[in-house]
Each structure stands twice: as structure tokens, then as C-alpha cells.
Amino acid sequence: MKKWFHRSLKNQLIAFILIVVLIPIIILGLISYYSTVQLSKDRAEISGESFLEQIQDSISFIINDVENMSVFLIGNQAVQEYLQVEGDPIYPQREIYGFLSNLAFSKQYIDDIIIYPSNGNSPISTNLVMDTEEMGIFDRIPSNKWWSYRKENETVDGRQERISLTRPIRSTSDFEQIGYLTINLNVKVIEAYLNAGELEWDGSVFILNNGKLLSGNQTVSQQVDSSELQQIIDQTKQDRFTYELGAEKFTIFTKEIETVGWDLVSVIPFQEYSSQNKYILWLTVYSVILAGVLITALVIFFISKILRPLIKLTDTIRTANPGDKLSAVDSFSYNEIGDLISSYNQLNERISVLMRQVQKNEAIKRQADLQALQSQINPHFLYNTLASVHWIALQSQAYDISRVVSSLSTFLQFSLNKGNEYCTIEQEVGHVRHYVDIKEIRFPDTFSLQLDIPEEIKQDCILKLILQPLVENSIKHGFFSLQQHYGRIKITAEKKDNRIHFAVMDNGAGMSEAKRKELQSQFLEDPLSSGVIGTNYGLRNVNLRLCLHFGQASGLRIFSEKLDGTTIQFSIPRKGR
């Protein structure tokens, strides 16, 4: 560690900054832990009350809905008549059963609705399996409010848990009791409402009715004496208190459902607070560790950023290859490191200028050598000699020789073209025709040429000697390798989007996909090396000249399949003469 500390200024800066920052972070974490423990307890109590109020609203809504439904049923004329007329009339039963079913099926929390007449008529129930044991509790039902209890009934789907709400039905004319109304609530739906909210602590929520567990977590009865808890609730009349059962302590929150006399109870074991405190402790530890890691990373990052230009400069100089252009190093600092990098960039730029000058001189030298080579061919002597041969051939009536010599003379004259690099499309096409004439004399009736060049673009400029090498490639590689094959070459040109698109198509031997990909790959490499070395010289030379004069977008594109011909396309910008 000591050796690492004294190794560099960078390591010393990192160590000092971490000591200065991390110690206050640790102290702040301890203070935050003790403050959060107390605040979390207070917040949990407030959260528990708020949570229970939300459930109270949901359960009260269900009870109020049941209350309104019972008022509607008790006041219904058909129900009143059926409960006061003896003889089990069928028609009212069907009518009453109809709207009882509609009410029951429209509410998810209602399992079934039952009307028990006091006059001996048959009970009417939405449940196909009638529970006759329930009539035995009617003598215990208070006359002025709901009677509720939990039971298990047999249904078409098997035995199911329900919360039964029963109240007397009185005559609307003389207020005499004429029957009972029972509305059975689905226990699973009620428990779903109890579990709908998210209690901050891992507690239990249930409903007490006269000291009995009406709905909720069945394991609560193993932790809490519900009868004793009911007595404490009735005596204290408090919404929140602490309840002790042996060595266990619980925080109790209560809310009353007044319509039915239920007590909504939430029980939170004290051990949950201890667990939460441990959670806060570990959260604080993890937070301090995470803060330490982040601070360490940021310190290393910023110190490295300050020294990065100098490191980059060192790496650039160390990894540079002789003869290659050195890369410039960016620096936005204005200190001694910035001055050093600025001096390096100026030196690098000077070296680049000298390298470009050397390259320019080499290019001029190669051009001079080429011009010297061309000057050695004495074009005028060559043209005069070919004219003499042409005249002798005509005198001897050797018309094929005359045609070849004439086409060759024109072909060579166009190729030299006084050193000009550009010509019109019409001249380039004429040059192709002369080349084809020469080939047709040598290889008669083996191929033909078709041209589709619009008149409007014939006077536009094109780079010289572009189409002829493509036609030569079709004849040499497309036709000669096939026996008894008549070749067809078609050259098309089309003006589109201020560019002229050319295509040279043949019906020759074509090439494999691997060969086509190899050519396209070589096309991409040639501009980087500024020259063509190796095979396929003709096509690659044309592609290189197009890229150097018009950019990569004008390079050759090859489409070919084995034994199905080849199409070569390229495009150039429109350029008047």
C-alpha cells in the first residue's frame, strides 16, 4: 500500500480526496439511521390508520349497497304480496326470483339472496341448493338491525364460505313482521377487499363481529385472542392501542362498520418493527458502501480525465508507425499539459504538410514519366502509317483489313485524345463501336452490341475509356468460355435525379456469388491503396477512376449469376460539355 501511495501523484490525490470525503459520509449515515428508525415507526402508525380507512371505505360501500338493496326488496310490491298471501302462488315466485337473480348476479360480492316467508309459503332463493338449517336462527335475530355470522353452505359448486346478513321483513301497511331477508356475501371477495391495499408492515387485517372472526386471515386466531380483543375494543373505544399476549406485543388499529356493528381490525406484531430497523440498518450500510464506491469511481474518473491528454499523447507517440500520419491529440486544458499537446499538434501538422508535399511531387513525377512515355509513340507517324495501310487495303480490295485498320486508327486516336480525361457520351459510345468492329472482324457472328442512349444526354461529359473496358470484359470472360454461344451486349443510359445511370448487360457465363463478393471487396480496397495490384485489373481500374473523379457513390455495382449473364452498373453526375 505504501509503495502504491508513493508511486505517482495520481495515487496520492486519490487517497487524500477519499479520506476527506468518506469520513463525513460515514458519520452522516449513522445519524440518518437513528433518525430514520424513529420516523419509520411514526410513519408506520399513520400509514396503518390510512390503510385501514381505505379498507373501511370499501367494506362500508358494500354494506351500504346491501342496505339499499334490502330496502328495495322489502318495499317491493311483489315481495310484500307474496309474504302476505298464503297458498304458494307460482307467478309471484317467478317474478321475485327474476329480479333477485339480477341483483345477485350483478354484484360480485353477493353469492345469493333468500326470502323466507312467515306465512308458510316456500322460501325464494337464487341458490339452487336450499339451506333449511338457516331458519333455525330466526328467533335470535334482533328486530331492529342486521344479524350477521359466518357459515359454510352447500352450493352447486360445492361447499363455500359465506358471510350471512339477515334482517326481518315487515309489512308496509301495518309494520307487522312477515318474513326474513338473507343476503349472503362471498367470503373470498370480502377477503380480497381486505387484502387489496398494501400495508407497510407485514400485519393482518380481519373483521370481528361480537368477538368472532368474521373474515380475514385464519392464522390470526392463533396469535390473538379475538374474544379478549373484542372486549378491549369495546372498553377502550380507541382507534389505536398496544395489545400484549404473553411475550408477544402487537399494535392494534380499529375502525367500526356502524351499519352492521362490525369492527375492522389491523394487527401488526412488534417484531415487524425490529425487522424494519434491521432493514434500515443494512440499507444505511449498503448506502454508505454504494456512496463510497461511487465517490471512489468519480474521484478516479476526474483525476484520470485531467491526466488523460498526457497519457493519450504518450500512447500516440509510442504506437505510431514510421511513415504513417500521426494523429492529433485533443486537449481543452490551458495548463502546462495543454501547452505541451498544442506544441505536439503544431509539429504534427507541419509533418503532415511535408508528407503531402512529398506525395504531390511523386504524383507529378509519375505524370511526367507517363507523358514522356506517350511522347515516344509519335502519334502522327502512327496515324500516317495506318492511313497508308488502309489505302493499300482498299486498292487490294481487302475490305476487312481496311475496316480493321480504319477502326484501329480511330480507336488509338480517341485513346490518346491529346491527354484529355473527359469526352462526350457520344464519343465514348463511338469508341466502343470501333472496338466492337475490330472484334467482329476477328470473331464474326459470335456476338452483337445493342445501344440504348437517349439523344438528350449524348453531349454530356463522361470520363474517357469507361464503357470500352466493360464491353471487353463481357466478350473476354462472358462469351469465350462458352461453346456455341451467341453473345449479346446491351448498353443503356438513363437520366435520373441529376445523374446519369449506366448499365452494361450481357448473357454470358456470369460469375459465382463468391467471385462477385470478392470483386466488390477489392473495389473497396483499391481507393485506400490508391492503385490496382493483382487480378481483375480492367474492372478494378475503371472502378478506381470513377471513385477518384466522382466519389464512392459512382463506383461499379456488379449483379451476376453463374451461367445467367452479368450486369455492371454505375452512375455519374450530369456535366455539360
TrEMBL record:
First-tier enzyme category under EC: transferase
Reaction(s) the record says it catalyses: ATP + protein L-histidine = ADP + protein N-phospho-L-histidine
Source organism (scientific name): Virgibacillus kapii
Pfam families xrefs: HATPase_c, His_kinase
Histidine kinase domain: residues covered: 463-576
Keyword list, A-Z: ATP-binding, Cell membrane, Kinase, Membrane, Nucleotide-binding, Phosphoprotein, Transferase, Transmembrane, Transmembrane helix, Two-component regulatory system
UniProt-listed Enzyme Commission number(s): 2.7.13.3
Compartment annotation: Cell membrane
Protein name: histidine kinase
Membrane topology: Multi-pass membrane protein
Membrane-spanning segments: 12-34, 279-303
A GO molecular function held by the record: kinase activity
SUPFAM superfamilies according to UniProt: ATPase domain of HSP90 chaperone/DNA topoisomerase II/histidine kinase
Residue span(s) of domain HAMP: 304-356
